[in-house]
Amino acid sequence: MITAEQKPIDELREMIAPYKRILVLGCGSCMAECAAGGEKETGMLASALRMANKIEGKDVVIHEKTLDRQCVKDFYIQLDDMIDQYDAVLSLGCGAGVQAVADMFSEIPILPALNTEFLGETKDQGYWVENCLGCGDCMLHIFGGVCPLARCSKQLLNGPCGGSVDGQCEINPDVPCAWQLIIDRLSSFDVLDRLEEIYPPKDWSKKQGGGPRKIIREDQQK
Amino acid sequence: MNGMSQLKKVLEKGEFAVTAECGPPKGADPGSVTKKAELLKGKVDAVNVTDNQTAIVRMSSLAACALLKECGLDPVLQMVVRDRNRIALQSDILGASAMGIRNLLCLSGDHQSFGNQPQAVGVFDLDSIQFVQVVKTMRDEGTILGGEPLTKGPDIFIGAAANPFADPLSFRVVRLAKKIKAGVDFIQTQCIYNLKRFEEWIDMARDRGLTEKVRILGGVTPLKSPGMAKYMKNRVAGMDVPDHVIKRMESVPKNRQQQEGIKICVETIQKLKEIPGVSGIHVMAIEWEDVVGEIVERADLLPRPV
């Protein structure tokens, strides 16, 4: 999933300061899973903003609404009847969600309430880790299910570097060395000799060679 | 401005090679490079120029190499893959060769989070092993990555680093083997304080026949103080400074600690000279280049071959 964290409340208050009627818009998919912008967080943020305005005696209307997904236009039907009453939307979608909403409702400013971070997994309660770059050419079958591009700080395809000590990365003792994980995993499958091979430079054209990427599937089109 | 790599000549003659390190200044002053060049002239076969080491912005390694070359030294251009993509790396190799720089050390580089530009993007388009392979192909096949021909390939003696002290130990030798497979001519190691571990590593390398295929220069760094030893042990990634070395530095009065550091360094070199598979030493006297001559002399490695 995509992960994000909420921006500091002061930054959000500054962002919405010019507006009088604001819709705080949550997203019930990835942003709910990473506890950044689901229904619960959207309600909490809207309440906090209302309370802050009340204390300062500002006359601002703040409503809240959470869509199942902000990045899929099919769900916007829920906004059609209500969007006109607002002069700004504070979106708790990921960057993709914010842009999809902005694309649909071009006459209203859509403001980001979150900082979108990475493609990752929920490791534990309140603990998410990055493990995919979306490179467009998955190599996980080679490296024992551990991605060296996403999880090695230097993106080495022929690691580990000289900074791997006691299974930890040189940049921070809290970061596990991805290459130690790869070596351990391939050892357990008895295929460590796979790493004697030199893996060639990554073909980054599948990530950024054609500018922003798109997927077109005619079999999925009506 | 052409000619052959002095380092290559010395190693091919089977002589015990000596290289040193010159850190470029945090400024545009050529004088500080030429001053270091004068200190090192005649004491070593070649001089490495670090490439924005510890991710701190300094004069470019390529430019400082050109200054050393003008002073009559044989520079070793260090290049990290942290700051340049494959286009820039290949382009700089061509430029370096055109300027008569004949040695290259291909490195990953310290992570950008360590330096004074932690907001920088880390490029890491190639890794150090791929980089070695690319340079070898440019030199031997006359082609760039992807196969397009060059009008003239670079004339470069290709080096890489090895850290016998990082983990996992058994894989350190695999990585050395990969660097050799990629086409490396010489290796300079991380600073050696733990000779026991270094010997374990080189024994494993010798068992795989690797010391026959590549020239290994053992890295040494003279310690200035027990504080420096502790800093290197605790704060420098992949550095192994055993407690007995720290204790030895602590056991002498403050005014004799530098001399003790030099003494440890000379003793390490004497031991390295006896280890089969070690073809030379690489003296990294950090901001202490004026001591290199003394170390090399006391290790009975002067005069250097002409």
Q: Quickly name the level 1 CATH class of the domain at 6-217 in chain B.
A: Alpha Beta
| Total helical elements of chain A | 8
The assigned structural class of chain A equals: alpha/beta
Largest sheet of chain A: 4 strands, parallel
Q: Within the CATH hierarchy, at the fold level, what is the topology of the domain at 6-217 in chain B?
A: TIM Barrel
User: Percent of residues of chain B in helical segments?
Assistant: 40-55%
Q: Tell me the distance between the termini of chain B.
A: 18 Å
Just name the CATH architecture of the largest domain in chain A: 3-Layer(aba) Sandwich
Instruction: State the end-to-end CA separation of chain A.
Output: 27 Å
Largest sheet report of chain B: 8 strands, parallel, barrel
The parts of chain A where pLDDT drops under 50 for at least 5 residues are none
Instruction: State the strand order across the main sheet of chain A.
Output: 3-2-4-5
Mean of all residue-level pLDDT scores of chain B: 96
Characterization of this structure:
The complex is a heterodimer of chains A (222) and B (306). Chain A is α/β, with parallel strands linked by helices and 222 residues long. Chain A is built from 8 helices and 9 strands. Chain A folds into 2 domains: 2-118, Rossmann fold (3-Layer(aba) Sandwich); 133-209, no CATH class. Chain A is 28% helix and 23% strand. In chain A, a hairpin with a 2-residue loop joins strand 6 (114-124) and strand 7. Chain B is α/β, with parallel strands linked by helices. Chain B has a domain at 6-217: TIM Barrel. Chain B contains 11 helices and 8 strands. In chain B, helix 6 links the parallel strand 5 (157-162) and strand 6. The longest helix of chain B is centred in the C-terminal third of the chain and has 18 residues, at 257-274. Chain B is globular and about 60 Å long. The two termini of chain B are 18 Å apart. At the A-B interface, loops of A face helix 5 and helix 6 of B.
